Each structure stands twice: as C-alpha cells, then as structure tokens.
C-alpha cells in the first residue's frame, strides 16, 4: 500500500507540530541532507515551457530513497482562480521501486522553500539581522515571513506588492503572531530602505528588475525566490555583480536563476559548500550576499521524508492501492478477471482503493 497525503492531511501535520515546529524540523532535515551532498544522484529538473508557464519534474535519489516532484509555475493562474504554483510528488524505495508515499506538495513547497531561505540566511545574513523587506505578498509570502521570524529572529517585516489586496491578506493572516511587526510600504524602494534582509518572491513571466543596484545597501542579504525560470528574473544584473552569490545546484541555477543574465563563468558558491564549512557565508559585515534560490529536488526529498515520518507518527493519511497486489507477481493479467469493486454513482473512490491508516 502507498501512503496518500492530501493538502488537508499536510495541514493537519503542520497544525499538530505548529508552523514554527514544522519549519524547524524541515530546516534541520534540509540542512542535514545538504551536508551529505555527495550521497545524492542529482540532476537539473526537466522543464516543459509554454506561453503561460512551465511544468517541471524534479527527481533525486540517495541510493536508498527516491523522490520526485511535479510542479508548475503559471503567473497568470490567480486570475483564473488557481494558484501560481501547484505540486505533488512521491517517495519510493530504491531497492524495489515500490512507491511508499504519494503526497500533495503545494503547501509543502511553500514550507520547504521558506525553511531553505531561512537556512541560507542563517549563514549569509549579518548576525543580529532584525528587519526584512518582503516584496511579493502572494501564496508563498506568509511562510517566508514566519520562517524568518521563527528561525532567524526577524521581528519587523516591511511589505510591498503591486496588488494591495495581497498585502492586506498577508497582514490579516499574520496579525496574531506575537512579536512580529508588519508594515505596508508604498514601493519596493521604500520597503527595502534600511532592511537587513530583502526577500523577493514575486511572480511575473518576465525579465523583471524588482531590485536595482541603487536600492541595495552595504551588508544586505538578498533572498531571491521568484526568479526561477528562463526569462523570469527579479534582480537587476548589477545587483548580482556587486554580491557574493550562493546557489542550490549550479547546473540548474545557471539556466533558471537570476544568474541566467550573467556569463557562465560568473563565480557562484553552492549552498552545501557553505553548510559543510568549505566556504564562508560572508566575508565581512559590508558584503552584499544573494541567495539565488530556484528550488532544488533535494529540498523536496527532505520534505517528503518529514511528511512520511510525521504522518506515521500522527496516524494521518490513507493507504491507497496505487500498484496492484498480486497473488502471483507474474500474473498481472489476473487483475482483469478479478471482481470489480462496487461503486455508487458520485462516490469519490471505490471502497477498496483507500483505507484510513
Ligand atoms: N525558489 C523556489 O524554490 C520557489 C518555490 C516556490 C515558488 N517560487 C516562486 O515564487 C514566486 C511567488 O510564488 P507565489 O506562489 O507566492 O505566487 P503568487 O502569484 O501567489 O504571488 C506572487 C505575488 O507577486 C506579486 N507581484 C508581481 N509582480 C510584482 C512586482 N513587480 N512587485 C511587487 N509584487 C509583485 C503579485 O501581485 C502576487 O501577489 C513565483 O515566481 C514562484 O515561481 C519559487
């Protein structure tokens, strides 16, 4: 049987562990996996581009466990009543190929992206950072805000979105978070002024320059999340040129990250090198640092294992018969003559397809 986790199941896990607890567990799991970088069979994701967006597949394995994620990015989707980013994925046993988990990964992507952003900032931002500008206040934004608040001690966040309703939604959602001050700003330049950290998490299918060199102050850390696809950037190239740039997996980021605007020999450091202590996070308090985040399969690998272990611990999810259970594994044909499950019109799934765990 395969453990099936819906968005409601994942929300149940997050509520049981608390948002802060979930982000902490995820961040620890992601850090532990980045530290054993050499164990993984890695590849840049496979992307299928269209006029409206992109659909990507993200596989990875450590030789024992294999995971994959399906994820899209369609910046126009919210006008159709759909999220910009939607995802699902699975975890399988390498020894047999048996799928162990099939899970929603939309909510999980927001959590793992925020946990990764905060993890990178712990090494790259100036110690004692307290204020962050958060540009783009859509689906990912609350998770980014909470990760920086709970994992890094950011207590003031200056918000800007071209859609004032998105900023109002973020303030409403986080109004009861104690010790977190949220300020709506009139422009990116206004939000960024004096901030220790700048997170850009906008969605636009364009070579945007949300942040220009004139807005960047000495010592700032920039967490660039929304530039994650060919032709889709957030930072002006001069911002990258003035900074120390850290990436997840260089072969993928060269294609998808903000550094796609620069020549292939522009120097970058992979995050695992910083986490393993091979490379410093920042050289001094005045250095500008950039985490050019695009999202790497390893973060979903860590997240899927966290989901599996948490679901088992809490008894959440359903067991689904995703692959056939056969008396004789060579007799797949027998399935065609097995009695069919009784199905009442309008029911969601036949009774034998899903079982509570
Ligand atoms: N790096 C990663 O691992 C990762 C993971 C998930 C999502 N993303 C990316 O993050 C971005 C945001 O995702 P989301 O799910 O929050 O999307 P969303 O559509 O819910 O929100 C995006 C917000 O950006 C705002 N925006 C667009 N252009 C802007 C501009 N010039 N200035 C200020 N705000 C602007 C929009 O009004 C919207 O509110 C997307 O580009 C997505 O592809 C990256």
What does this structure look like?
- With 357 residues, the chain is α/β, with parallel strands linked by helices.
- The chain has 10 helices and 18 strands.
- It has helices at 7-17, 19-35, 106-124, 141-152, 164-173, 188-192, 237-241, 250-256, 271-275, 297-314, and strands spanning 2-5, 46-49, 54-61, 65-73, 87-93, 99-104, 131-135, 156-160, 181-184, 197-200, 207-211, 221-224, 233-235, 243-247, 269-270, 288-292, 318-320, 354-356.
- An 8-stranded mixed β-sheet has the order 2-3-4-5-6-1-17-18. It has an 8-stranded parallel β-sheet with strand order 9-8-7-10-12-16-14-15. It has a two-stranded parallel ribbon with strand order 11-13.
- α2 (19-35) packs across α3 (106-124) and α2 crosses α4.
- It is globular.
- Bound molecules: nicotinamide-adenine-dinucleotide.
CATH superfamily of the largest domain: NAD(P)-binding Rossmann-like Domain
CATH class descriptor name of the largest domain: Alpha Beta
What is the number of strand segments? 18
Q: Which ligands, by name, code or SMILES, are bound? A: nicotinamide-adenine-dinucleotide
Per CATH, the architecture of the largest domain is: 3-Layer(aba) Sandwich
Largest sheet: number of strands, sense, barrel closure:
8 strands, mixed
Q: What is the radius of gyration computed over CA atoms, rounded to a whole number of angstroms?
A: 21 Å
Distance between the termini: 10 Å
Q: Which structural class do you get from the secondary structure elements?
A: alpha/beta
Report low-confidence residues grouped into runs of 5 or more. Answer: none
Percent helix, as a range, is: 25-40%
What count of domains describes the coordinates?
A: 2
H/E element order: EHHEEEEEHEHEHEHEEEEHEHEHEHEE
Content of β-strand: 15-25%
Q: Roughly what is the average pLDDT, rounded to an integer?
A: 96
The largest sheet has its strands arranged as 2-3-4-5-6-1-17-18
Approximate shape: globular
Q: Examine the coordinates and then state which fold CATH places here, giving the name of the CATH topology of the largest domain.
A: Rossmann fold
Distinct helical segment count: 10
């Amino acid at each position: 049987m395969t453990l099936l986790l819906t968005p409601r199941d994942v929300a149940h896990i997050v509520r049981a562990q608390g948002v802060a607890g979930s982000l902490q567990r995820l961040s620890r799991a992601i850090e532990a996996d980045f530290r054993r970088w050499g164990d993984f069979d890695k590849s840049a994701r496979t992307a299928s581009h269209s006029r409206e967006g992109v659909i990507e597949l993200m596989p990875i394995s450590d030789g024992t466990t294999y995971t994959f994620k399906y994820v899209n990015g369609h910046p126009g989707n919210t006008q159709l009543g759909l999220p910009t980013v939607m995802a699902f994925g699975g975890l399988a046993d390498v020894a047999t190929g048996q799928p162990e988990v099939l899970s929603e990964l939309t909510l999980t992507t927001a959590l793992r992206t925020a946990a990764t952003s905060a993890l990178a900032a712990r090494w790259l931002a100036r110690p004692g950072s307290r204020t962050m500008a958060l540009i783009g206040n859509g689906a990912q934004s609350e998770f980014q805000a909470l990760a920086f608040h709970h994992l890094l001690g950011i207590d003031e966040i200056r918000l800007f979105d071209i859609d004032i309703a998105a900023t109002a939604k973020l303030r409403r959602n986080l109004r009861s978070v104690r010790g977190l001050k949220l300020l709506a700003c009139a422009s990116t330049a206004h939000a960024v002024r004096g901030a220790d950290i700048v997170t850009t998490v906008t969605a636009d299918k364009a070579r945007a320059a949300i942040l220009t060199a004139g807005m960047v102050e000495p010592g700032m850390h920039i967490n660039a999340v929304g530039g994650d696809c060919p032709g889709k950037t957030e930072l002006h190239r001069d911002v990258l040129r003035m900074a120390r740039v850290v990436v997840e997996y260089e072969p993928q980021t060269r294609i998808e990250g903000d550094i796609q605007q620069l020549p292939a020999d522009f120097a970058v450091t992979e995050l695992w090198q910083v986490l393993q202590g091979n490379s410093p996070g920042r050289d001094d308090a005045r250095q500008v640092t950039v985490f050019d985040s695009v999202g790497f399969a390893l973060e979903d690998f860590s997240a899927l294992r966290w989901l599996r272990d948490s679901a088992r611990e809490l008894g959440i999810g359903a067991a689904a018969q995703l692959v056939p259970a056969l008396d004789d594994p060579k007799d797949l044909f027998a399935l065609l003559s097995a009695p069919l499950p009784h199905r009442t019109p309008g029911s969601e799934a036949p009774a034998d397809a899903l079982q509570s765990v």
